[in-house]
Q: What sequence folds into this?
C-alpha cells in the first residue's frame, strides 16, 4: 500500500534510514536537505507500507493549483528503495502523484532508467577515478588536452578549500547567470549558499578555485561528497578570463588529486551542449536521468497549457 503523507506526518528518522539504505543513496534526498532545497519545507511524500520505499514530492502553487517539481540544485529525485523497483511499481507511484496534483514535473534517478516509464531524459556524464592520473589523462579528448596545456602555460594558481562559497556563486550570477536560459531568482542563490554552507559544515563539500597570475578569481567549483560519488555540483567562471582556460584547469586538477581513489566524479548533467561537450572531453561516460511529466487528466493538461505550464 502506498501512503500519501503530509510533511508534518513524515518520520524524519525512518525517512533518512530508507534513503541511506537505498540503491541510489544520496544526501540530497535526506529529510533535512529536502527542507533546505525547497526553501520552506514545502514537500510531502509517498511512502510504501512501512517506509520500504519513499518518494519526495516538492510542490509549488500556481494560484490554488498545486504541482510537483524538481528543486534547483537537486541532481536526481524519484523513488528511493533498497531493491530494484519494477516498471509497474514505479507506475503506481506516478499514478498516485497524478491523482493528487494537477501536474508533476520531476527528475527520477538513474536506478529507474531501465524501466522505460519516463517521458524524456537529461544527459549526464560520470568518470570513474579508479585508474592512475596518466591513464585517465590519456582518455581525454585532444581538444581538452590542448586547453589544459594552454592554461598551464599561463601560470595560474589552483586553490583547494580557500575560496568563499559566496564568491563562486557571484561568479556564476554575474556571468552565465545573465543568460536567458538561466532561471535562477535571488532566493535560489540564497538557498544555494545556505545548502552549500550546511554541506561544508558536515565535511561534505570540496571547494576548488583557479586564480590568474594577478590573483583574480577566474573560476570556482563546489564538489559534493556523496558516498563514492562526487558531484560537480555548482561552478562559476569569469567570462573575461577565458584565455586562462580556468574550467579545464580546475577539472583537470580535481581529477589529478582524486585519481586512483575509486570515487565516481559525476558531472551532474546539462542541457547546454557546450557544457556537455566539456564533460565528454574529460572522458566522461554518458548516462541518462529520466524525466517524467504527468497531468492529472486531459482537462488539466489543456488548462495548464493555456497558462503556460
A:
Amino acid at each position: 500500500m502506498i501512503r500519501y503523507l503530509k510533511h508534518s506526518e513524515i518520520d524524519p528518522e525512518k525517512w533518512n534510514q530508507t534513503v541511506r539504505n537505498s540503491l541510489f543513496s544520496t544526501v540530497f534526498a535526506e529529510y533535512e536537505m529536502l527542507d533546505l532545497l525547497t526553501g520552506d519545507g514545502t514537500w510531502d511524500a509517498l511512502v510504501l507500507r512501512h517506509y520500504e520505499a519513499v518518494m519526495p514530492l516538492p510542490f509549488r502553487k500556481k494560484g490554488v493549483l498545486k504541482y510537483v517539481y524538481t528543486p534547483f540544485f537537486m541532481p536526481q529525485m524519484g523513488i528511493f528503495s533498497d531493491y530494484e523497483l519494477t516498471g509497474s511499481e514505479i507506475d503506481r507511484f506516478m499514478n498516485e502523484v497524478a491523482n493528487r496534483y494537477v501536474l508533476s514535473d520531476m527528475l527520477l534517478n538513474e536506478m529507474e532508467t531501465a524501466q522505460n516509464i519516463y517521458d524524456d531524459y537529461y544527459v549526464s556524464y560520470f568518470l570513474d577515478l579508479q585508474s592512475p592520473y596518466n591513464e585517465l589523462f590519456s582518455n581525454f579528448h585532444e581538444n581538452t588536452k590542448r586547453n589544459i596545456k594552454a592554461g598551464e602555460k599561463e601560470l595560474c594558481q589552483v586553490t583547494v578549500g580557500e575560496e568563499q562559497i559566496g564568491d563562486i556563486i557571484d561568479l556564476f550570477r554575474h556571468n552565465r547567470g545573465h543568460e536567458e536560459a538561466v532561471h535562477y531568482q535571488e532566493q535560489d542563490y540564497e538557498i544555494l549558499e545556505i545548502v552549500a554552507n550546511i554541506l561544508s559544515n558536515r565535511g561534505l563539500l570540496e571547494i576548488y578555485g583557479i586564480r590568474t597570475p594577478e590573483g583574480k578569481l577566474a573560476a570556482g567549483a563546489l564538489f559534493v561528497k556523496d558516498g563514492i560519488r562526487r558531484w560537480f555540483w555548482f561552478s562559476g567562471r569569469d567570462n573575461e578570463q577565458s584565455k586562462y582556460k580556468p574550467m579545464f584547469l580546475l577539472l583537470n586538477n580535481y581529477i589529478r588529486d582524486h585519481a586512483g581513489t575509486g570515487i565516481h566524479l559525476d558531472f551532474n548533467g546539462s542541457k547546454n551542449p557546450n557544457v556537455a561537450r566539456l564533460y565528454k572531453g574529460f572522458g566522461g561516460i554518458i548516462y541518462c536521468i529520466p524525466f517524467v511529466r504527468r497531468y492529472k487528466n486531459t482537462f488539466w493538461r489543456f488548462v495548464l497549457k493555456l497558462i503556460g505550464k
